[in-house]
Amino acid sequence: MKILEAQSAVLTNYEVYQHLTDIRKRNNSSQPKRRMPEDAFRLSKEVLEYLETKPYPLHDQKEKQHYSQATLELLCEKLAEKFPDITKAEGLAIFDVRPTNIPVLAIIVESLEDRYTEEEQQQLVDLVIEVLGQDDPEPEEEEGEEGAEDGDAVQSVETANGA
Amino acid sequence: MWIVTKIADLVQLKPQDFYKTSLEAIEDKINEKYANKVIPNIGLCVCVWDITDASEGLIGQYDEPARVAFVTNRRHSVEAEKVWLWKSDEETQLYYDTHEIVRFMVLEERWYTQPPTKPKESTDSDAPTKTTYQAPYSIIGTMAAPGLGITLWWE
């Protein structure tokens, strides 16, 4: 065994998720069914379960399809356009964690407060929500309805932009 | 965080694997060998990402055909979030309940290579020599910063 390159690429959670689900689909559809070796099977199952756990943004990927290669490209494009100071590693973490509020954003982006004004911070959060979507608000009492309207508003903004 | 690591290795394919295509057989062998194992200073291997190159097979000395797979890519994870069990109460009365998902910041990675165990010495002392096992890879993290801790606090 020889390590040729310790880190030849960095992957996003989405790519890992997609790779593992692709393997699973491929194995299940081949005749006869293929099975990964025990350890690999168990580990990939655990990784998938982990990625599909709330509050990970991939937890509702199956229903919502928020994530795709296109959204990754779109996010990079928009970040480069509006927030050129965001480093690659920060962009990756933004894509993986999907910060929908400022405290969470602050742990991803180093010295956020020094680099961006409060307004810009909010713009960045809005950009993330626009591109990657967000969780439906918890259906609790009346607040739930308001939240749902917010979600719709985001979608209609998108369609308005498209039109 | 997930990374792809390029590795060259030689794997042996046995006759019982011949019903598979060689690419499948190589992939299975590599997954068997690496998955769920820690490579020092790289991380925990999950599975084959891609096989970039495989040479022609060689016949081994026991007349069992062996195939050489070169360069496999795998991933490792330094996870940013994990289930953590902790109980504490602070002034603000935030509780870490069990089975809550938390977010923490990685401060340090520790690698440990288990040395081989000593052979049994003379039979005089029946006391079994104690070998201490340590996790090959541990992550030291902190939750003492805004935005960290139980994810629900920050929703």
TrEMBL record, chain A:
SUPFAM superfamilies in UniProt: HRDC-like
Keyword entries, A-Z: DNA-directed RNA polymerase, Nucleus, Transcription
Primary location: nucleus
Biased composition (Acidic residues): 133-152
Cell compartments where the protein resides: Nucleus
Pfam families registered for this protein in UniProt: RNA_pol_Rpb4
MF GO annotations: nucleotide binding
Region of interest (Disordered), ranges: 132-163
Gene Ontology cellular-component terms listed: RNA polymerase III complex
GO biological process: transcription initiation at RNA polymerase III promoter
PANTHER family in the cross-refs: CALCITONIN GENE-RELATED PEPTIDE-RECEPTOR COMPONENT PROTEIN, DNA-DIRECTED RNA POLYMERASE III SUBUNIT RPC9
Family: Belongs to the eukaryotic RPC9 RNA polymerase subunit family.
Protein name in UniProt: DNA-directed RNA polymerase III subunit RPC9
Biological source species: Podospora anserina (strain S / ATCC MYA-4624 / DSM 980 / FGSC 10383) (Pleurage anserina)
From TrEMBL, chain B:
GO biological-process terms attached to the record: transcription initiation at RNA polymerase III promoter
Pfam families associated with the record: RNA_pol_Rbc25, SHS2_Rpb7-N
Record bears the keyword Amino-acid biosynthesis: no
One GO cellular component, as annotated: nuclear DNA-directed RNA polymerase complex
Entry keywords, A to Z: DNA-directed RNA polymerase, Nucleus, Transcription
RNA polymerase Rpb7-like N-terminal domain ranges (all copies): 9-59
Location of the protein in the cell: Nucleus
Domain RNA polymerase III subunit Rpc25 residue range list: 79-154
PANTHER family given in the database record: DNA-DIRECTED RNA POLYMERASE II, III, DNA-DIRECTED RNA POLYMERASE III SUBUNIT RPC8
Protein name stated in the entry: DNA-directed RNA polymerase subunit
Organism: Podospora anserina (strain S / ATCC MYA-4624 / DSM 980 / FGSC 10383)
Taxonomic path: Eukaryota, Fungi, Dikarya, Ascomycota, Pezizomycotina
